[in-house]
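@channel anyone free to eyeball this complex?
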Amino acid sequence: MTAPQDNPLPKLGIIAGGGALPARLASAAQTAGRAVFVVKLDGHANDADLDAYPNVTARLGAAAKILDAMRTNDCRDVVLAGKVKRPSFSAMRPDWRAAKLLMKVGMKALGDDGLLRLVGEELEREGFRLVGAHEILTDLAVPEGVLGKVSPDDQAMTDAKHGLGVARILGQADVGQGCVVQQGLVLALEAIEGTDEMVRRSAQYRRDGVGGVLVKSSKPQQDKRLDLPAIGLTTVDEAHQAGLRGIALLAGGTMIIDREAVIARADALGMFIIGLRDADGKDGHGV
Amino acid sequence: MTAPQDNPLPKLGIIAGGGALPARLASAAQTAGRAVFVVKLDGHANDADLDAYPNVTARLGAAAKILDAMRTNDCRDVVLAGKVKRPSFSAMRPDWRAAKLLMKVGMKALGDDGLLRLVGEELEREGFRLVGAHEILTDLAVPEGVLGKVSPDDQAMTDAKHGLGVARILGQADVGQGCVVQQGLVLALEAIEGTDEMVRRSAQYRRDGVGGVLVKSSKPQQDKRLDLPAIGLTTVDEAHQAGLRGIALLAGGTMIIDREAVIARADALGMFIIGLRDADGKDGHGV
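replying in thread with the prediction:
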C-alpha cells in the first residue's frame, strides 16, 4: 500500500450525468488535493464544464468501457452524479457487459432509479467503493428547519406536509419525488419530466389566493450514495415565476446545489426554503 | 304515496359538471320514462347539451340554491356527474350553507375528491338518495378482460399492471388516478390537469421502441356513486396521437362513456382497451 503522506486521498472517479453537480464535485475534490477522473455520459454530461479534468466519454450502455476507464485510471472511489434520462433499450445500445446486467434484472420492470441502483451494485461487485456526492460536498445535504430569512405561514406548512406525504407515496412506486401543492390541492406530480418542467406546468393550474409550495422528497428505498433529488438556482427562479411561495425539501434526503446562492436568491424573492422531516419523524437517512 | 303505475320511477335530479356524461344520463333517464331536473354547475356544465331539459344554473358554492332546487322540483334521487374543477375558496363564493359545510371539514386539507364526497354526504343528510351514474347508464362500468379486437402483448401487459399499481398508490393520497407507462417507465402522472392533458404531455417524453399504455384507476376509498374516472372518444384519439398502444382500466372502478363508439374507434386505430383487476385481485367494487 502507498504511504498515506504520498497519497492522502485516493483518486476519485466521477461518472457524470447532466447538470452542474459533476463539475462541482470535480472542483471540490481537486481543491481538497484529490485527483479526479471523469467518465462523461454521452448525451447527458455537460462537456464544457468537465473538459478541464482528465476524462473520457462513454455511452450509458457501454458498461465495459466505463468499468475499464475507472480501473485503468486507478479510481477506487467512484461517485455517480448528475441527471440521467433512462433511454429505451435500443437507444441505450448496451455492450455485452451492460446487456448481461440488464438481462439479469429484466428491462421490462425497470423503474426510473432501478437503472442507477444496478450500476451502483455492479461497481461494488467489481471492487469499487461507491461514494455519495454529499460525502464530497458536505453542504449539499438539506438540514431540518428554515434555511433563509422567510418562514412559511400555516397554509404553506400544511401544503408542504401534505406534499411530502404525497411525494413519499410516489417514491414507494419508484416514480417521481416531487409535487406542487396549493391550498391543499395537488397541482402537479413529477414523473420523468423533471422538477423544472413540472413547476412550469403547475402555473397553468394554480388557483386564486395564496400561492403553492414545491415539495421534493426522496424515495424510501433510495441509496443516498446514488443521485439524490436536487434543487439549484434554476429551481428557485422557476418556482418564483410559477407563483409558488416556497420550497420544502426532505431533510437529509435531498440536496441543494450552490446552497449559499440558492438561499440568497430565495431571500431576495421573498420565498422560503425549509427542510422537513417525514410525518413519521423520519428524515432521508432511513433511521 | 303515489301509485306506482302513475309514477313508476321517481324523478331524477342531475347535478351536472363538465363533459358529455350529464346529458347522456338525462337522455337515458327520459328514454326510460323518467322525468329529470338538471342543476347546471356554473362554469362547468355544458349548457348546449343540457338546455333541452328543465334546469337551473347554480354556482358550485351555492349549496342552499342547489338543495332548494332539488327539493322544489321533487327530486328524491340525485346523481352527481361530470367533471368539476375545485376552485379556490374565494372563487367558490360559498353561500352560508356551503360555508358552514366547508368550515366543518376545513378547506385547507380538502383534496380533489374531498369536495365531492362532502356534497354527496350532505345530500344524504338532507334525505336525498344518492344514485351512481352507472346505475342509470348500465354500460358505463368497465368489465374485466379485453373489450375490443386488439389484445395487449407481454410488454403492454407489464406496463398496464405496473401503471395500475402506481395509479392506485396515487389514489391513496387522494390525488390523480391516471398515468402513462412505457417499457416500465412512468412517463406522466395525472394530478388535476386531467387525463387528456397528461396523455398529450407524455408524448414529449416517450422513448424509442414500442409505445406506452394509458392507465386509469379509481381511488381505493372512492364512493362509486360519485364521479368515477371516465374515458371517452377523445381519450382514445389523444392516446393514439401520443403514440400509445392501448388503454388499461380498473375493472368496475372506471367508466367508458359511449362504449360502442369507443371500442370501434380503438379497433380502427389498432389499439387495445382492457379492464383489469388490481394486483391483489380486487376490482373497483371494493370487495
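from a first look: The longest strand of chain A covers residues 36-41.
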